[in-house]
Amino acid sequence: MTPLVERARALQVLNALLGHVVAGAGTAVSVEAPAGAGKGALPAEAAARARRHKAHVLRARCCPHEAAEPWGAVRQLLDALLSEEDRGLLDAGPAPLPDGSGDRALPVERFHDLYLVLLRLSRRGPVVLLVDDAHHADDLSQRWLAYLARRLEGVPIGLAVAGRTATGAARGALETALAACPEFPRLSLRPLSEQGTADTLAGKLGQALEPDSAAVCHAATGGNPGLLDAVAVSVARTGTPAPRITPDQAAGLCDRAVLRALPLLLNRHAPAVTATATVVIALGQVTGLPLLAATARIAVSDAEQAVTAPEDAG
């Protein structure tokens, strides 16, 4: 695993979380980052560190295709632990309210029974739940995780949630709940500095680029780790040792790598983000949000949210 660069604060917080959990003082932490900022590497690192503490590690990686499936994220986390009786808790979504209005009531009694499943497991050792791309989690799973977060005090259970900033969507139940609890730390990952870019590429390539070539790569990617992954692959495919890559070669490699990788990163956001970025690239310069919104055929409010995603990503 390539060492995480410029993520000392995040690793410090994760270590503190594990220390609290092992001591029986459960807590939660949320990590926010734009697409490609490397937040996915943190759950993997947290899992490795938790296992060294002899903790039970439960992981889920949410995706848009399962966002409408009730209990999808919870099933990823707990399926292997649930008895046949416990699985019955997940067989249905919320029940209709008794007045026949058709609205759906949250199954709080099921929330608590699932919480008790974790408590039983924690008697055998600390438990750490890691949820990546939590903004894609289904509503019931988000609400259960929020329920869990409010009941961690005094139990050896920890919760680490990674989500994406500037998706152009409203906050989900889980993000809202964690934001309302000031005792839970919130981490925001930023793009890498120029030195961080050089160190990251050196780690991936096994050799350092010349400083001028590394500076070109930083300028082309904004220090976004996801784009740097694509650049490292392009450099490796040339067969040229990294120290011999000239700035001109680096510029060409970066252009091609970014053209391949950027649409994939943008597509992880809401459609408004992709539309906004496309218009910005096409126009070259945008004088105001109304023009941007009109050209992208989206609401001004959506454009205002969406434009922050490329900015956050560097």
From TrEMBL:
The keyword Nuclease does not apply. One of its GO terms (molecular function) is adenylate cyclase activity. GO terms for cellular component: cytoplasm. Residues 3-154 form the Orc1-like AAA ATPase domain. Pfam families: AAA_16. Keywords: ATP-binding, Nucleotide-binding. InterPro entries: AAA_16, P-loop_NTPase. SUPFAM superfamilies: P-loop containing nucleoside triphosphate hydrolases (SSF52540). PANTHER family: TESTICULAR SOLUBLE ADENYLYL CYCLASE, TRANSCRIPTIONAL ACTIVATOR DOMAIN. This is Orc1-like AAA ATPase domain-containing protein. It comes from Streptomyces alanosinicus.
